[in-house]
């Protein structure tokens, strides 16, 4: 199978890399069983001082077991997860296709849909006429009031005015980029950083451009282990932090020495993706398929952020700091949604959760976003479920649609 028909399956197979082997027909049962053991080990240490989200672990285990062909075990884990009422919804999760005709699964889906109806608060901010952009990352220069958006298919970066006018910031043929994922603007000098997926040339990088789109520097982490750089965050002019989703790692990149250092975290991370830094620059938040890990950059101590009751932090793609809150585009619940999480004063737990958009066309295939003037702009329908790991369109007969950037207020 070369096509990925659901966002979760795409991000955990194509972009996130690990399950691409399974999609290509390779036997990955040993890797799945290794992950199952690791997740079960985390669950054994759940509690105030250990792993924080049992529901997230149950959901991920259910996905693993269904891939191994153990449908009964997967369904039992799903039922246990749903009983915790954390917002997980397997209805359209492509991983559970083999359960679609199971009566118990259908009953579970009906209960979930009654419990979690659509939430519609966003609207379309602008529509981009070019239909083959297939974006993953979005960033904003709040001073210039320009958005920057990555492009996986054409391997470039575009800039977007508030009117929706699009122009190339970095042309696809200029610097031989691989698939561009995360993008980030440095407010100090208006330069732009991006992270790239390995692509056909197996060259994952972080790449730095000046405000005019001219290449300043590019770096690849050392070693030969599989890795795929995904999203990144800047800590003033000192450091860049970047998630390696395929290698299950997070790196600190020193902008002076140009050295990558793997972060030592309190637990193993599973396909880390979204990443952000607190307003004071002292705390790093790292999202993976099990939740969010909080790393104190002064002490290097880390721990899981405790989610609010009946909620989860699992599987956040774009993650952003906003006035003591985290805002995110979330796919790891099985259903796409845009969320705001109000953090406790110490940033160690979620005090309350707010759904900003769920179950509508505006979260049909979202990825990441950017905050401007107390508004959260996000990519509503990226279309990346129609790309392969080289950034090529899989189904040429599938109608390409204009791209929408949606916006929701954070006031």
**Largest sheet: number of strands, sense, barrel closure:** 5 strands, antiparallel
Strand ordering within the main sheet: 1-22-21-20-19
Number of domains: 2
Shape: globular
Low-confidence stretches: 1-26
Distance between the termini: 44 Å
What is the architecture of the largest domain at the second tier of CATH? 6 Propeller
Please report the first level of CATH classification, the CATH class of the largest domain.
Mainly Beta
CATH superfamily of the largest domain: TolB, C-terminal domain
Task: State the secondary-structure class.
Answer: alpha+beta
CATH topology of the largest domain: Neuraminidase
Q: Compute the number of helices.
A: 6
Mean pLDDT: 90
Report on this model:
- This protein is an alpha+beta fold and 411 residues long.
- It is built from 6 helices and 25 strands.
- The chain has 2 domains: 7-119; 120-409, TolB, C-terminal domain (Neuraminidase).
- The chain has helices at residues 7-15, 20-23, 29-44, 54-67, 71-83, 103-115, and strands spanning 119-120, 123-128, 138-141, 146-151, 156-161, 166-170, 179-186, 191-197, 206-209, 215-219, 229-235, 239-244, 249-254, 260-262, 275-277, 283-288, 291-296, 302-304, 316-322, 325-330, 337-343, 350-358, 369-372, 375-379, 403-409.
- Strands 1-22-21-20-19 form a 5-stranded antiparallel sheet, with no helix packed on it. Strands 2-25-24-23 form a 4-stranded antiparallel sheet, with no helix packed on it. Strands 3-4-5-6 form a 4-stranded antiparallel sheet, with no helix packed on it.
- Helix 3 packs antiparallel against helix 4 (54-67) and helix 4 runs antiparallel to helix 5 (71-83).
- The longest helix has 16 residues, at 29-44.
């Amino acid at each position: 199978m070369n096509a990925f028909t659901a966002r979760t399956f795409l991000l955990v197979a194509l972009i996130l890399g690990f399950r691409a082997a399974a999609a290509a027909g390779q036997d990955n049962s040993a890797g799945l069983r290794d992950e199952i053991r690791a997740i079960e080990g985390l669950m054994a240490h759940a509690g105030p001082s250990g792993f924080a989200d049992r529901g997230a672990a149950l959901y991920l285990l259910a996905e693993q077991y269904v891939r191994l062909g153990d449908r009964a075990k997967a369904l039992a884990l799903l039922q246990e997860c749903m009983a915790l009422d954390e917002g997980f919804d397997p209805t359209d999760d492509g991983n559970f296709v083999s359960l679609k005709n199971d009566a118990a699964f259908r009953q579970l889906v009906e209960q979930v849909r009654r419990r979690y109806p659509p939430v519609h608060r966003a609207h379309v901010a602008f529509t981009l006429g070019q239909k083959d952009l297939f974006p993953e990352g979005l960033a904003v220069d709040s001073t210039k009031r320009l958005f920057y958006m990555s492009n996986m298919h054409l391997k470039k970066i575009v800039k977007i005015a508030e009117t929706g006018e699009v122009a190339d910031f970095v042309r696809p043929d200029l610097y031989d980029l691989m698939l561009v994922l995360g993008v980030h603007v440095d407010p100090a000098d208006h330069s732009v950083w991006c992270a790239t997926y390995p692509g056909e040339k197996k060259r994952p990088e972080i790449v730095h451009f000046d405000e005019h789109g001219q290449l300043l520097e590019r770096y690849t982490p050392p070693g030969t282990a599989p890795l795929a750089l995904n999203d990144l965050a800047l800590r003033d002019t000192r450091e860049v932090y970047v998630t390696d989703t395929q290698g299950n790692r997070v790196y600190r990149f020193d902008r002076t020495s140009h050295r990558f250092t793997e972060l030592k975290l309190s637990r193993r991370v599973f396909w880390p993706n979204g990443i952000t830094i607190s307003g004071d620059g002292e705390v790093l938040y790292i999202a993976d398929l099990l939740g969010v890990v909080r790393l104190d950059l002064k002490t290097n101590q880390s721990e899981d952020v405790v989610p609010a009751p009946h909620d989860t932090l699992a599987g956040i793609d774009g993650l952003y700091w906003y006035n003591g809150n985290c805002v995110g585009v979330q796919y790891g619940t099985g259903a796409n949604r845009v969320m705001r999480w109000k953090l406790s004063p110490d940033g160690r737990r979620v005090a309350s959760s707010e759904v900003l958009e769920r179950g509508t066309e505006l979260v049909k295939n979202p990825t990441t976003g950017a905050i401007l003037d107390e508004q959260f702009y996000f990519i509503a329908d990226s279309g990346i479920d129609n790309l392969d790991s080289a950034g090529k369109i899989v189904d040429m007969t599938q109608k390409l649609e204009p791209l929408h950037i949606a916006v929701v207020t954070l006031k």
